[in-house]
Design brief:
single chain; alpha+beta; 4-stranded mixed sheet; two-stranded antiparallel sheet; about 15% helix; 2 helices
């Protein structure tokens, strides 16, 4: 299966760049940027079919502004930095950070005691 979604129109093999959704209660067809996920009752369209889209008589077509097709390098770098930051474990409040000394063991569990830092900033063992 190809990671690129293709146009929903019959016999069209162009890559999809827009998503079409119908809001029946408002008699509106909404054409916007390609949805992140495939949704039921939504149609992916290529640029050509999206441009030629017409709605039934009495219906309104709302064309949402399209975002850039691909994120910039700065966007990707910011996202990667945010993921790295979120993955870092935060130290618990009030607990010392540093080395610990094992003082006991029961099965696969270990009892740890925080090592006290000495005056030079290193932890004593």
């Amino acid at each position: 299966m190809s990671p690129v979604r293709s146009c929903s129109r019959t016999a069209c093999r162009q890559p999809a760049v827009f998503t079409l959704t119908y809001v029946y209660a408002d008699s509106t067809a909404v054409l916007g940027p390609l949805a992140t996920y495939v949704e039921p009752h939504c149609y992916d369209l290529c640029a050509e079919h999206a441009e030629r889209l017409t709605a039934p008589r009495g219906w309104e077509v709302v064309r949402l502004p399209s975002e850039s097709a691909s994120p910039s390098g700065d966007d990707l770098e910011a996202l990667a930095n945010a993921v790295r930051e979120a993955a870092r474990p935060a130290p618990a409040a009030g607990e010392p950070v540093g080395q610990a000394v094992e003082v006991g063991r029961r099965g696969h569990l270990r009892v740890l005691k925080s090592a006290q830092p000495n005056r030079s900033g290193e932890t004593a063992r």
